[in-house]
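quick q for whoever's on today - can somebody do inverse folding on this one?? i tried earlier but teh output was garbage lol. tokens:
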């Protein structure tokens, strides 16, 4: 599954600067910073073509009547182009080189590496990534090469943070759940080919069909972006299934897919890395709180998103 278009939005207050008009100041070519980014990639073993991304200054970046410092896409307005824009109205010309690097590397993390935002911090409250989405990006003093190296290492490989003490917002030993269904969750998507099935979201996810001639499936699906859980955690998907009237046909099943970014010369692609399903042994008949379960034995910190699926399989075999 292709990940959705990434849009990075960074407030003008991001680098603790003001939004003065700096049109009278010369602006260096942004491709110099793109080259710096690809040089850092090459030093870590990735040969990325610096020509793959468009980089441009714009007068301002205004979204919902708010000014932003930068924005980055890996699929610019659906064109497939990778693009970064830096606002001239956001103090760029007077920023230090370190602050420029932080902003550019953040935006190119979106535009070239397909990275999404994260809100994870370490146990001391410091951001663990350039891809932090909060009001202040990671900052370090000029000359602090060790800290700078860590942030750039993590940008290209999230496993650089695996040995850090990370605050996940909950104690998984006390409460291991990071998601539980609730009926107002609008992130669930229902699919039915040729309207063969009906889906209804109530206190449960309902799927129904009376079409005994279909060879197609109907399913509910939900995507979790970059789940904030420890590296190589064992993740369990558990669904309770009811069919008091009796489920006929091939039956019902669940599935889970995990995706990661793979860095290439032309930029990152998002690819499926793990897939688990019960479709080879679906459940059928009268079901009362029947529990179906799948286990991902080791989910990487590099996971960009998870997709979980609850499917009603067809009455007939596929033709």
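ok took a stab at it. sequence:
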């Amino acid at each position: 599954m292709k990940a959705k278009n990434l849009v990075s939005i960074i407030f003008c207050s991001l680098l603790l600067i003001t939004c003065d008009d700096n049109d009278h100041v010369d602006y260096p070519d942004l491709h110099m910073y793109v080259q710096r980014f690809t040089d850092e990639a090459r030093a870590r073993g990735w040969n990325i073509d610096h020509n793959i991304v468009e980089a441009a200054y714009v007068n301002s970046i205004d979204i919902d009547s708010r000014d932003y410092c930068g924005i980055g896409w890996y699929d610019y307005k659906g064109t497939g182009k990778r693009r970064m824009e830096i606002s001239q109205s956001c103090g760029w010309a007077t920023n230090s080189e370190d602050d420029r690097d932080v902003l550019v590397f953040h935006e190119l993390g979106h535009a070239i590496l397909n990275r999404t935002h994260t809100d994870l911090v370490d146990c001391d409250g410091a951001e663990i990534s350039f891809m932090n989405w909060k009001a202040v990006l990671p900052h370090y003093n000029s000359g602090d090469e060790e800290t700078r190296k860590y942030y750039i290492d993590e940008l290209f490989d999230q496993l650089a943070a695996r040995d850090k003490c990370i605050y996940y917002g909950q104690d998984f030993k006390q409460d291991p759940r990071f998601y539980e269904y609730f009926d107002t969750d609008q992130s669930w998507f229902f699919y039915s080919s040729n309207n063969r099935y009906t889906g209804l979201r109530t206190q449960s996810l309902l799927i129904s069909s009376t079409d005994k001639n279909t060879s197609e499936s109907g399913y509910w699906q939900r995507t979790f972006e970059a789940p904030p859980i420890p590296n190589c955690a064992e993740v369990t998907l558990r669904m309770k299934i009811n069919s008091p009237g009796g489920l006929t046909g091939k039956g019902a099943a669940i599935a889970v897919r995990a995706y990661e970014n793979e860095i290439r010369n032309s930029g990152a692609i998002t690819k499926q890395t793990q897939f688990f399903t019960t479709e080879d042994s679906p459940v059928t008949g009268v079901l009362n709180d029947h529990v179906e379960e799948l286990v991902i034995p080791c989910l990487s910190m590099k996971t960009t998103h998870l997709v979980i699926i609850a499917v009603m399989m067809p009455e007939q075999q596929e033709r």
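fwiw The chain is about 15% helix and 35% strand. also Residues 1 and 314 are 22 Å apart (CA to CA). so keep that in mind when u check it
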